[in-house]
Amino acid sequence: MFCYNVSFYSIKKCGDPENVKTYIYSQDFINTLTSDLMYKDPSKWAMTFQAYVSMTMLDMHRRPTSTPVKLMERSLYSARYCFVEHMMRQGTLHPAQFAVLDEWFRFIQREIPIEADLIVYLKTTPSVVYERIKRRARSEEQCVPLSYIEELHQLHEEWLVSRTFAECPAPVLMIDADLDLTQITEEYKKSEHQILRRAVNVVMQSPNKLSPKKAITGSAIKIAPRLTL
Length: 229
Fold this sequence. Notes:
Elements: E1 11-14, H1 27-38, H2 42-62, E2 69-72, H3 76-89, H4 95-111, E3 119-123, H5 126-136, H6 146-160, E4 172-176, H7 181-205, H8 212-216, E5 221-223
Parallel strand pairs: 1-2, 2-5, 3-4
Helix pairs in contact: 1-2, 2-3, 2-4, 3-4, 3-6, 5-6
């Protein structure tokens, strides 16, 4: 939602991977993987689900853009430090499966430029997220319990606020997303200046800031919001 409520110019918006329909399989396949398989039998399908998530996220990170700012709804960082970590802590992933996913993430970090320049954290109370999920009424999310959202929220807090778990790869801009949806667009607009200022600073500090090749090789600024769902 954040991606589609910011409006400054020269920005490439990459939405939630659930809404990206350019991959091999259809949206029906994604819905089946999440609702019929992952949520109903997570111990069996968690590894498959996260492997697919990693692939779609990596594609978004690497997708070329001609704009100086690339805004992503989520990233490989939140996938690893929140969702994969949650599965490990809950025992959904076998330690061997976790080790494979973790090593895959580390390999990507070493070999592929996926770094973000700014993290926008839409801090939302779990109960508010839960009510929004119910109103959104996606069929694949109907079995998501409040406890699951609370646990993911705690991981986001440990990672981005208290910094007691994992390394935070970029500065964090926090936005109060508990506001009513009719008010939150205005809150997003207030943050645009901070985001754009950060983007301009990064571009000006880049030794290749005048090279048009830099923009089309996928090395533009990446701003990755972190959601609590």
